[in-house]
Description:
Elements: H1 9-21, E1 30-32, E2 35-39, E3 46-50, E4 57-59, H2 68-76
Antiparallel strand pairs: 1-2, 2-3, 3-4
Amino acid sequence: xxxxxxxxxxxxxxxxxxxxxxxxxxxxxxxxxxxxxxxxxxxxxxxxxxxxxxxxxxxxxxxxxxxxxxxxxxxxx
Length: 77
């Protein structure tokens, strides 16, 4: 996760929480110009956060659908 001094740390935390609710475990964040992304370490689903001037946003399969690998592991147990 990014350093605490990062002004967008709240957005990262919301993305991690939203993905976890769907069974995803996010890996390392990768930043680009105006965005950052991370992928689920189980199924590879990605979440992206954007940093426009007015209102930060997030999207991606990791916050829109259940983790397929985590669901399969849960059924096997």
